[in-house]
UniProtKB/TrEMBL annotation:
It is found in: Cell membrane. The chain crosses the membrane at residues 12-34, 74-96, 108-129, 141-161, 182-207, 244-262. This is Carbohydrate ABC transporter permease. It comes from the Bacteria. The keyword Membrane applies. InterPro entries: BP-dep_ABC_trans_perm, MetI-like, MetI-like_sf. The keyword NAD does not apply. PANTHER family: INNER MEMBRANE ABC TRANSPORTER PERMEASE PROTEIN YCJP (PTHR32243:SF18), MALTOSE TRANSPORT SYSTEM PERMEASE-RELATED (PTHR32243). Keywords: Cell membrane, Membrane, Transmembrane, Transmembrane helix, Transport. It is a multi-pass membrane protein. Residues 70-262 form the ABC transmembrane type-1 domain.
Length: 277
């Protein structure tokens, strides 16, 4: 069916409005980061700074240990992403290939667990980490991030496993390959786009996470970047807007860079999985 001209105009208008809605906060953040103090307090704000400056970035680095906090966030996010993918991949294979009641129960529990609020989980997690003596430590935070990312990673990878033709695994079994060998040599390479997408999800989730880091990390030198950003807000709730915007802009860059690097591979894998021979 051919879409009428008014319908196409309406679709493109809705898409443009959605893109503007998504881009507005980031563009305003970038604009604020480069504005001098007198423009930040102006009653008639502009999109493009009249006198752009890097003073906000210099002040942000002078006031807070942003590089050290970014390193803590990077280590926690990378470790959580790698560990979550390594654990979720074989689990997803079992859940997808074994159509038992236990597998269905696991899948249902994964879906239900995503509805749990952070506040409900923080107390038991805090008690477990306290017994393990991992409070106020980056490894303890990584453990929490892995636990939080595993359900969605398992559900996501299980869908990719189901898209892999079982005939390939049956052929490998005929050639004498066991379950582990089949998973490593046959299934895992075909799951590369899904593994990359899942790892990206786990990384971005851990990089942007704030609540768990705020509760579990008390020592300033161990705090992550989202927690350090709150230090630009004074005791009376007044934000140092320029440095805060500059630091927040820098905090968004790693996620954008990582996604820009691997988005072609993700898209290519999705298209490959969508085409049947």
């Amino acid at each position: 069916m051919r879409t009428s001209r008014p319908a196409r105009v309406g679709q493109y208008t809705a898409l443009l409005a959605y893109l503007v809605f998504l881009a507005f906060p980031f563009l305003w953040l970038v604009s604020t980061a480069f504005k001098p103090p007198r423009e930040l307090g102006s009653l008639h704000p502009t999109w493009i700074p009249n006198d752009p400056t890097l003073a906000n970035f210099r002040q942000a680095f002078d006031e807070q240990p942003l590089l050290h906090a970014a390193l803590n966030s990077l280590l926690a996010a990378l470790a959580a992403a790698v560990i979550a993918v390594l654990i979720a991949t074989p689990m997803a294979y079992v859940v997808a290939r074994r159509r038992t009641r236990l597998a269905k129960a696991v899948t249902g529990w994964v879906v239900v667990s995503q509805a749990f609020p952070f506040v409900l989980l923080i107390i038991p997690l805090f008690l477990v980490l306290k017994n393990l003596r991992l409070i106020n430590s980056v490894p303890g935070l990584v453990l929490v991030y892995v636990v939080w990312a595993l359900p969605f990673a398992l559900w996501m990878l299980a869908g990719y496993v189901r898209a892999v033709p079982p005939e390939l695994e049956e052929a490998a079994a005929v050639d004498g390959a066991g379950r582990v060998r089949t998973l490593v040599s046959v299934t895992a390479p075909l799951l590369a786009p899904g593994i990359v997408a899942t790892g990206l999800f786990a990384f971005i989730t851990a990089w942007n996470e704030f609540f768990f880091a705020l509760v579990l990390l008390k020592t300033p030198e161990k705090q992550t970047l989202p927690v350090v950003l709150t230090h630009f807000i004074g005791a009376e709730g007044v934000a140092d807007l320029g440095p805060l915007a500059a630091a927040a802009f820098l905090a968004t860059l790693p996620s954008l860079v990582v996604f820009a690097i691997i988005q072609r591979r993700i898209t290519g894998g999705m298209l490959t999985g969508a085409v049947k021979s």
